[in-house]
Q: What sequence folds into this?
């Protein structure tokens, strides 16, 4: 039986339901479009109600039923309400995608504890809340469903000045492995981890920044649609982990051959790419309040191509 399908053979694509967190922008919003094109009913969650409504309209334009549910995933009760709303509206949850995340740049020794905690509350506990809500729904509907947690290649190797984000992503991967082990007795419940390399989303523009220099994306980076397709593929054909991007596979190979060398390379290269020479005042970005831009693409591939062309 394929993930996202119940034991009822009459269930078709149009009857399947997916819940996606972080759906106001980036990877999650792109995945929502793809699920809509495949006939899923989509339940979209994020903090910004206006951006979420626009994302839902994009899904409806593709022929899907779509519901926008403004949700702060750091709030456990809000995530419980999200699941309840999805079930009340569509009767079931076939796929749950945890994708909401915030980013913070700063030195580990001097980052404000409250800001660090907020990254963990959103990125890690948001996934814990979503996972628990999804598993409750899957078990209540007969022991079937697919949980997809979007982690990062930074679940495998550190990145200087991103300690809060990296901590959350390492924890997400470990947490998801534990959940997958626990679900072995429930063969109808699938638990997947997506490990994207750098993706061209607006997360870099919205990141909190205490480095005093303007943030840029890492490079090389991949189109958002590539990560979104990995998510919809996992829903159709569940796998424990899916790496997104050729560079991610090369990183994984490097970590198997020489973890210390890969750590040194990332530690040396990443800061040279991630920060420009332009000064920037300290900012909390979207840690505590949702801020734009709320589009799918971040424009970073064009940025790096222009720089390459000029050189």
A:
């Amino acid at each position: 039986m394929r993930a996202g399908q119940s034991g009822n053979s009459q269930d078709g694509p149009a009857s399947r339901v997916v819940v996606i967190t972080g759906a106001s922008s980036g990877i999650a919003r792109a995945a929502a479009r793809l699920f809509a094109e495949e006939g899923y009913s989509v339940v979209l969650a994020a903090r910004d109600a206006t951006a979420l409504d626009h994302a839902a309209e994009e899904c409806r334009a593709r022929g899907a039923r779509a519901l926008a549910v403004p949700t702060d995933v750091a709030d456990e009760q809000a995530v419980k309400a999200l699941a309840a709303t999805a079930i009340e509206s569509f009767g079931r949850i076939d796929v749950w995608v945890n994708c909401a995340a915030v980013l913070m740049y700063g030195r580990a020794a001097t980052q404000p504890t409250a800001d660090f905690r907020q990254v963990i509350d959103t990125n890690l506990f948001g996934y814990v809340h979503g996972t628990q809500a999804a598993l409750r729904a899957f078990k209540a509907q007969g022991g079937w469903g697919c949980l997809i947690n979007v982690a990062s290649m930074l679940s495998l190797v550190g990145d200087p000045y991103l300690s809060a984000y990296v901590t959350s992503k390492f924890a997400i991967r470990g947490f998801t492995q534990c959940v997958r082990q626990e679900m072995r007795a429930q063969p109808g419940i699938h638990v997947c981890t997506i490990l994207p390399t750098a993706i061209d989303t607006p997360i870099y523009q919205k990141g909190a920044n205490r480095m005093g220099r303007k943030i840029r994306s890492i490079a090389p980076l991949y189109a958002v649609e590539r990560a979104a397709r990995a998510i919809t593929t996992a829903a159709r054909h569940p796998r424990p982990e899916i790496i997104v991007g050729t560079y991610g596979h090369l990183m994984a190979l490097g970590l198997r051959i020489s973890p210390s060398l890969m750590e040194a390379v990332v530690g040396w290269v990443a800061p040279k790419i991630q920060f420009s020479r332009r000064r920037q005042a300290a900012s909390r970005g979207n840690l505590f309040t949702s801020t734009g831009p709320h589009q799918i693409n971040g424009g970073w591939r064009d940025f790096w191509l222009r720089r390459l062309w000029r050189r």
About this structure: The first strand starts at residue 17 and ends at 21. Residues 140 and 253 are 40 Å apart (CA to CA). Confidence is low (pLDDT under 50) at residues 1-10.
